[in-house]
C-alpha cells in the first residue's frame, strides 16, 4: 500500500495535497457513512457543518479525537483501538443477554455482529462509536426492542430525583462555606453564592453512585466533603465566561448532557443559569443511544416530565432561523433533538441543532465523550465550548475552549439594527413622496457566479434609478455585511420585507438579466441562459412573503415571473449562497 503522508492532527487534513491521502480520506468517510456527497439524505452538507466548525474549503472534518484518528489512519489494529472495539462488543452482549430470551434470535444477532467485528478487526477503518451504532441498529432491527434501557434510565432519573429531595442534598447544596469568600461588594457576594451553587450541582451531577448505588451514598460520610470541596478552576473559568466583571450579558447557551440520572442535576444547574438571565437550549438524542437521555423519554419518565414541565419542546428538525429566534425570545428553556442516535457526530446532527449551535454564545458539554469529541479534537469550532467531566482518576474537570479567532458572530441584535436602518430609509422615502421598490434577484444561486450576480443586479438597479423619478429601489447586493451567511441575510431581509413600506416588489426576470448583460456590453454566459428569480430558493421564500404581504396591503404590486413558477423550490439551502437542485418529487408545478 502506498505510504500516507504524516498527519500531526485532524486539523491538518486537506483534500488536494496528496492523491493517496485523498483516496484514503474518501474511503474513510464512505466507510463511516459520513460523506455528504454519497449520502446527502443523512449527512449534513458542508455549509451546515460550517455553522459549527471553522473549515477551509479543502479541509476535512473528522468526528473523533486526534488520538483516535491517529489509531485509524494507518489501518493498524493498535491496542487502544482493540480495547475500544472490545468495549463496544461487550455493550452489545450486555444488551442482548438482558433483553433477548429467545435463543434463536440471540444467536442470529451474535452471528451477524461477529461478521461486523471481524471486518473492523481485519481493516480498522470504523470510528468505534460508528461501529457501536451499527451493532445497536442490528440489535434493534432483529429484536424489535426500540429502547432496551428505558426502565434502567427511568430508575436512574427516579433515584436522582429522590436524592434531590433528601436531607443529604440540602446539606450538600446549602451548607455555608467556612470562608468569608473575600467579597468586596454585594454584587460579588451574590455571584460567589451563585458560583458555589453551580459548582456543587455540577459535582453532584458527576457522581453516578447517586443513582447507581444510592444506599452507599447515604452511608458514606466523605461524600459531603467531596461535593463541598472548593473548586478554584471552576470558579475561575465560570467567572471568566459569565461573571459580573466579564462582558456579562444574557447568554444563549446550548447544553449537551451526558447520561440519564445525571440529567436531573443538569436541569437544576440549568435553572440556576436561567435565574441569572441566560437562555438555554437542551439537546437530547433523537432515538436510543445507550444510556443517553432521549427527546421522547419525557413521555415515559415521570421524573423527567416534572423536571421539564415548563420547557418548550421543539419537534421540528429543520427549524428556520426566524422560528428558532422567536421560540427563544418566548421561552427561557427549549428542548430539541440533536437528530442522532450516537455520540456527538456533527455530520449527522439536524438542521435545528446546527442552527441552535450557530445562534448560541456558549456550548456547555457534559461528560468525557464530549471532551474527546470537542476538546481532544484539534479542529476550531465556531462557538466557545465549556466541557465538564470526570476524568479516569475520578477528578472533576472543567475545560474551556475558545471559538476560532477567525469567526465573527453576527448577533440577532446586529442583524436587526442593519434591517431597521434600511426600514428607516424606506420610511423617510415614503415621507418625501417617493415609492419604494424591492428588487429580488439571483445573488448566490449559481455556484461560482456570486460576484457576477452582484454586478448584474447593481447594473440593472442603477439603470432603473436613472429611468424612474421619485423611486427608491432597495438593492440587496448593496447591503451585504461581512460575516453574514445565507441564514443571516434571509432573516434580515424578511424583517425589511414585512415592514409594510414596499410599494412595488419586483422579481428578476430573464429579460432583466439579458438587459443587464447588454448594459455591461457583454454576452449572456452559458450559466445564465434561461435563469430568473424562480431559480433561487431565496427568491422563492421571498415570493411567499410577498404574497402574504399583498394580502395585508392589496395596493402593493408584484412584478416578475408568475408566482406559480417559484414553488418548485420549497426551502432555501442551509447556510448556502447557492441552491440545491430541485429533486424529482418537487418538479411538478
Write the layout of secondary structure elements.
Blueprint lengths: L18 H13 L14 H4 L16 H8 L5 H21 L3 H20 L5 H16 L6 H15 L2 H8 L11 H20 L3 H4 L1 H5 L3 H7 L3 H11 L9 E5 L5 H14 L3 E6 L17 H6 L4 E2 L7 H10 L2 E5 L13 H9 L2 E5 L1 H8 L8 E7 L5 E6 L10 H20 L3 E6 L9 H18 L3 E4 L11 H12 L6 E4 L2 H11 L16 H16 L4 E3 L30
Parallel strand pairs: 1-2, 1-5, 2-4, 3-4, 5-6, 8-9, 8-10, 10-11
Antiparallel strand pairs: 6-7
Helix pairs in contact: 4-5, 4-6, 5-6, 7-14, 8-12, 9-13, 9-14, 19-21, 20-22
Name some characteristics of this structure.
single chain, 589 residues, alpha/beta, Rossmann fold, 3 domains, 4-stranded parallel beta sheet, 23 helices, 47% helix, 9% strand, disordered C terminus
| Count of separate DSSP helical elements | 23
- What's the structural domain tally? 3
Percent of residues in helices:
40-55%
Category from helices, strands and their pairing = alpha/beta
Largest sheet: spatial strand order: 3-4-2-1-5-6-7
The biggest sheet amounts to: 7 strands, mixed
Q: What is the H level of CATH, i.e. the homologous superfamily of the largest domain?
A: Uncharacterised protein PF01937, DUF89, domain 3
If classified by CATH, what would the architecture of the largest domain be?
3-Layer(aba) Sandwich
Q: Could you name the CATH class of the largest domain?
A: Alpha Beta
Mean pLDDT across all amino acids = 90
- Uncertain segments are 580-589
